[in-house]
Amino acid sequence: MNNVYVILVEPVYRGNVGSVSRIMHNFAFHNLRIVGGIPEKEDFVMGMHSEEIMEKAEVFTTLGEAIQDMDRVIALSRRHGSKKRVDMNPRELGRYISELEIQNSELIKIGLVFGRETFGLTDEEAEICDMRCHIPANEKFPSLNLAQAVGVILYEVFVRELGDRKQEEYADRGSIVEAVEYAMGVCEDIKFFKDDKDKKYISDYFYSLLYRGNATKQMTIDLKKVFNRVYLCFFGRGKGY
Known about the structure:
This protein folds into 2 domains: 4-161, Alpha/beta knot (3-Layer(aba) Sandwich); 173-235. By secondary structure, it is α/β, with parallel strands linked by helices. Helix 1 (14-26) runs parallel beside helix 6 and helix 7 (173-189) packs antiparallel against helix 8. The two termini are 34 Å apart. The model has no long low-confidence stretch (mean pLDDT 86). Helix content is 44%, strand content 11%. The longest helix has 19 residues, at 217-235. It has 9 helices and 6 strands; from the N terminus they run βαβαβαβαβαβαααα.
């Protein structure tokens, strides 16, 4: 579980941070990051026997700083709708994470971002995350307690880890960014975009395709191969990659 980081954005109650630490301990996770600092309200009692996780939590000023070294960032949100996409449910998230392997002695680092107890994540905060996971619940009362939401997600990852893991060489963030920028560069060269809005839509689509598909390094290479062939058809020579 060393590659999974639980990231709490401006938690309000210290007891909830303690509860999150305890549930992390239950399922063998230990990387806790907090945006804004550990609140002073309440005490450590909810984190009994898991105080070390809470005490060693890394504290950041902004969410952007907390996720800057992550290869995958997944926002957990109860909100969903036509303008608030949902990429996966908890079970799909568990399967997604379990497929990621240690590659070249380095970890594919995954950040799971949980919002405030009061109003969750802002639209801007959710937007800088790569994907969104929605926990289905009673439509009349869909908001879970912070620690309960963390528990649902970590359980799904934990039980997947007990089974066999798929052996693949998964792409890190740098490889994905490089592949998308290459594809976008070809599209720019062949004047594919109608306007800046269209350009952003296509860029977001490529990123969503690779992140949701849990892209392997070979997939990023294949994407560049395809767009190199497109470039060849237009200009009579390859772009190189």
